[in-house]
């Protein structure tokens, strides 16, 4: 089956308007982008011709997406729309089209196919950790070090 799962950046880049592939998105993403090309009703045409399908991911896929995002440390950077795209990718096992680095990191950690649009995409995949540059300790989350109160920084521990 030839289809793609689109996040908002894919719509802004015009992907569904110049592609012959079927496209899926979620209602959360659709609500975010439905103003695009409103004067020409381009989205309406895609829906009427069944080239754009709006589908909600199931509960298990949604929970799996949130858990994966928490495991990589990307959860705070992801919106509900972003998580819904990852969940749909899990459920349909389809190619996700996105320029969002957090979506890309979670998707690639899950073994999903992801393609960037206007960027080169991410090179390194891994898990984000918070660290204190003052006392050199690692922390699961937070804004400041509980030991010395220095503001925490984030770094990506690359997957081997």
Q: Do you know the CATH topology of the largest domain?
A: Rossmann fold
What is the tally of helical segments?
A: 6
Order of helices and strands: EHEHHEHHEHEEEE
CATH architecture of the largest domain: 3-Layer(aba) Sandwich
Which superfamily, in CATH terms, is the homologous superfamily of the largest domain? 5'-nuclease
Report, as a whole number of angstroms, the end-to-end distance.
Answer: 31 Å
Number of domains: 2
What is the arithmetic mean of pLDDT?
86
Structural class designation: alpha/beta
> Sheet with the most strands?
5 strands, parallel
Please bin the fraction of helical residues: 25-40%
Question: Residue ranges: pLDDT <50 for 5 or more in a row?
Answer: none
Strand order of the largest sheet: 3-2-1-4-5
CATH class (first level) name of the largest domain = Alpha Beta
Shape, per Cα inertia axes: elongated
Amount of beta strand? 15-25%
Task: Please give the number of β-strands.
Answer: 8
Q: Radius of gyration, Cα only, in angstroms?
A: 18 Å
GO molecular function: hydrolase activity; metal ion binding; RNA endonuclease activity
Protein name: Endoribonuclease Nob1
Keywords: Hydrolase, Metal-binding, Nuclease, Toxin-antitoxin system
Domain Ribonuclease PIN: 5-92
Please describe the structure with a list of short key phrases separated by commas or semicolons.
19% strand; 2 domains; single chain; nuclease; alpha/beta; hydrolase; Rossmann fold; three-stranded antiparallel beta sheet; 8 strands; 160 residues; Ribonuclease_PIN; five-stranded parallel beta sheet
